[in-house]
Structure formats: structure tokens, C-alpha cells
Design a protein that fits this description.
41% helix, 323 residues, six-stranded mixed beta sheet, 12 helices, alpha/beta
């Protein structure tokens, strides 16, 4: 058995949909050896409004999970913990109140990070789990689909070029567009139009920032990489992997084809919420937002001409440890 030498650290990612904890040893060579991984869907962004910010019940759900995580950190004797919050906390008018509530009740100090910082750290984590064979100096377009935003990262030869954080998240998209169960075709069309419009804005921003979108497309032999819950869930569905037997080692470097994503989308959009809950590859709490997440994935693949996406189970949590 390999003896690890390094510092025992933890990271917590408070997302719009999910709160995640990683406890690991970071070895002197930068290798991450996980000891414990926990996650819970708290839907912090559920019921969010621009006027009032984050809803009280969403705060309470999230604090409840963070209390559990704080107890685990104490029992594990972690040397250092990094706690970050992302999209919904960046926008919420009551973000400071949420930070104070969490601090006073759990002892955890939250840092609300920018979309650009989130993308940079996610890229650090993503690449730590990828097989570099075959990637070489190819341009990489990495997408990180979250509850409140999606980060797009361009990189080449291990160097991050430019990152963009777009307000394209599965929670907000679901709550604003998919109002029927199952979703009506008109609702799906509105959702697709919204996604395509934001991707159009993204491409314009890429050009304005000196990045040619064509260079990061499937037509130019670029590689599309995906991380976070939507992408890993799609890979699990494709691999017929149950939630209770989820294996990051299998999901890392999994190649998910556009035809597979399209097939999954056509299946999911026709099911009721109750029927989606019966799919053993979808974790509890993701059944309603997986349709929007799949639509984002498929739209990105189409817009940039990719026939497959390489999956990374690692991301922001690992990046927080390395960054």
C-alpha cells in the first residue's frame, strides 16, 4: 500500500444546487489522494429572486448540511479547509447575511469567488484527473455546468487562455423555462432558444477577447472536456452505473458521444419527474434539473461541432486544494 506524504486538507464547494466536501492528502508532488467525499443537493438557488436574494428555507437546508460537514472536519483533524461559494452567492443581495449565518452556526468562513476564479480553479482540478495521452498541445474547451452559471475555459499546452462565466445554470433555467411535468415542447423550445442565445453571446465575447471560436471547435481537432454533476451524471447514465456504486475512476476520461447525449435527452424530456426519480444513475435532487443540464451539454456540442466530450470527475474541489 502506498504511503502518502503531504498535508491533510479539505475543500467545500457551496454551489447553487449542490454542496460538496472533499478531504484529501495533497502530496509533495501535487498528487491528490482522496480520503472522504460527500455531497448533498441543498438547492441553495431554489426560489432565488433578484429582490430578496436567497430564500430562507434554502439557507436553512444548506446550513444543515454544512453543520454535518463541520462535524466531519473536526473528527478528521483536517489541517486546512478552503470553503467557496459560487454563482447564486455572487448575485444575491443577502449574500453577506448568508456568510454571517454560516460562520456563526458552523464556524466555516466562506469566500465568494468570481466566475473567472471558479473557472481557473476548476481547470486545475479537471486536468489533475485527466489522462494527458492524446491531448498533447491540442486546444481544450472545458465546460463546467453549474446550478447558476456555466464556466467556459479555453486552454492549450497546459496554459489557460481565457475564461468566461455565463449566466446559464440548470436551476435558474429549469425554474424559468420548464414549468410542466413533463416539459411541453414549447417550453423546451424556449429553453433551447435561451441556451443558443447565450452561446451566441459567448462566441462574440470570445472574439472580443482575441479567441477564435473555430480554433476551439471539433472542426479544428480541439477537445471538449466536461466536469461537474450534469456531465458526470450523463456519463453514469450512459455507463449504466448506479448512484450507490458510482466510481470516479471509471467516469474520469469517459468519452461521451453526442449521439448518446442526444438519446439521453430525448428520453429524459419525455419522462415525468416521478419517472426520472426511478433512474438509478441520477442522484436524489438532480431529477428536475438534469433535463436542462443535458440540453446545455447538447447545445454546446452542436454549437462548437463536437462529436464527443471527455468527462472529468474532478473540478473545483480539487482545484481549491491545488490553488
Amino acid at each position: 500500500m502506498r504511503k502518502t506524504e503531504g498535508v491533510k486538507r479539505a475543500s467545500i464547494d457551496i454551489g447553487t444546487n449542490t454542496v460538496r466536501l472533499l478531504i484529501a492528502t495533497v502530496e509533495t508532488d501535487g498528487n491528490i489522494v482522496p480520503h472522504l467525499i460527500k455531497r448533498a443537493v441543498t438547492r441553495l438557488g431554489g426560489g432565488y429572486t433578484g429582490k430578496h436574494g436567497i430564500a430562507a428555507d434554502a439557507i436553512e437546508r444548506t446550513v444543515g448540511v454544512l453543520l454535518e460537514f463541520a462535524a466531519i472536519l473536526s473528527a478528521e483533524g483536517v489541517d486546512k479547509t478552503a470553503v467557496c461559494a459560487t454563482s447564486v452567492m455572487r448575485r444575491a443581495v443577502n449574500a453577506d447575511a448568508v456568510i454571517e449565518e454560516v460562520s456563526s452556526r458552523t464556524g466555516l468562513e466562506i469566500e465568494v469567488i468570481t466566475g473567472e476564479t471558479e473557472a481557473r480553479l476548476s481547470m486545475l482540478g479537471v486536468t489533475s484527473a485527466l489522462d494527458k495521452t492524446g491531448l498533447g498541445d491540442l486546444p481544450l474547451l472545458t465546460i463546467d455546468i453549474g446550478g447558476g452559471s456555466t464556466e467556459f475555459i479555453t486552454s492549450k499546452g497546459g496554459e489557460v487562455k481565457v475564461v468566461w462565466s455565463m449566466e446559464l445554470g440548470v436551476v435558474h433555467l429549469t425554474e424559468s423555462s420548464l414549468l410542466s411535468d413533463p416539459p411541453k415542447e414549447k417550453e423546451l423550445a424556449v429553453m433551447d432558444s435561451t441556451i443558443d442565445g447565450i452561446i451566441g453571446v459567448l462566441k462574440a465575447q470570445m472574439k472580443a477577447d482575441g479567441i477564435d471560436p473555430a480554433e476551439y471547435s471539433g472542426l479544428e481537432k480541439a477537445v471538449l472536456i466536461g466536469t461537474a454533476g450534469t456531465i458526470t451524471t450523463l456519463a453514469a447514465i450512459d455507463a449504466n452505473m448506479k448512484v450507490e456504486s458510482y466510481d470516479p475512476a471509471v467516469i474520469n476520461n469517459y468519452r461521451l458521444t453526442k449521439s448518446a447525449v442526444s438519446g439521453i435527452f430525448n428520453r429524459l424530456k419525455s419522462l415525468t419527474l416521478k419517472e426520472r426519480k426511478k433512474i438509478t444513475s441520477i442522484e436524489k435532487g438532480r431529477e428536475d434539473v438534469i433535463v436542462a443540464g443535458t440540453a446545455i451539454t447538447l447545445s454546446v456540442m452542436r454549437a462548437f461541432g463536437f462529436d464527443e466530450i471527455v468527462v472529468s470527475d474532478a473540478g473545483l474541489l480539487e482545484g481549491l486544494l491545488l490553488g
